[in-house]
Write a structure and sequence with these properties.
The chain has 174 residues and is of the alpha+beta class. It has five helices and seven strands; from the N terminus they run E-H-H-H-E-E-E-H-E-H-E-E. 29% of the residues are buried.
């Protein structure tokens, strides 16, 4: 099923064109959990990340149907929030903050998530990637670990957000 998928790359300038697509996929993926206040804030996160001049997004399509997406943006050098979790900070400095990865249910367990992730990460030219995973989703954390990420700590970035595992990986991915 994944071989027929087409991956398209988008930037900050494309946000007006893709914003509703991102919101629609989120609403589909989280339809059973939309009563949770934190999930209702997703439009703010899209605008926040999409407002970054180096925002990058990859959307997967099966024909004209949107399958899923991945997005993020580079961190400001010297201001990487994940460094506080390491005793010795890595020498590498260019970090891509991987914010979101969502795949609609029909395409899960097909390799689509990894294709989206790799397409986004391999295009960035960063040394490291950092992300957050809800600690109540151990299968998602295990998936990222299978891609080379390691958990370096936990944080709750917002009072109403879940507690997240802070995860880090060296780039480029092998």
């Amino acid at each position: 099923m994944t071989s027929a998928l087409k991956l398209r790359h988008y930037s900050h300038d494309d946000l007006p064109e893709i914003r509703q697509t991102l919101l629609d996929v989120h609403d589909d993926v989280y339809k059973a959990e939309m009563e949770e206040e934190f999930n209702q804030k997703f439009p703010w996160f899209v605008d926040h990340w999409g407002g970054h001049p180096e925002f990058s997004c990859v959307i997967a399509y099966d024909g004209e149907e949107v399958v899923g997406f991945a997005y993020g943006a580079p961190g400001a050098e010297g201001r990487e929030w994940w460094r506080e979790y390491l005793d010795a900070a890595p020498e590498k400095s260019r970090t891509f903050h991987f914010s979101e990865l969502m795949v609609r249910e029909r395409w899960r367990k097909t390799g689509t998530s990894e294709r989206l992730h790799r397409a986004l990460m391999n295009a960035k030219g960063a040394d490291l990637a950092a992300l957050l995973v809800d600690v109540t989703h151990p299968k998602v954390q295990a998936l990222y670990e299978s891609w080379g990420y390691r958990k370096v700590g936990e944080r709750q970035p917002f009072p109403d957000s879940p507690v997240f595992a802070v995860m880090l990986v060296d780039l480029p991915l092998s």
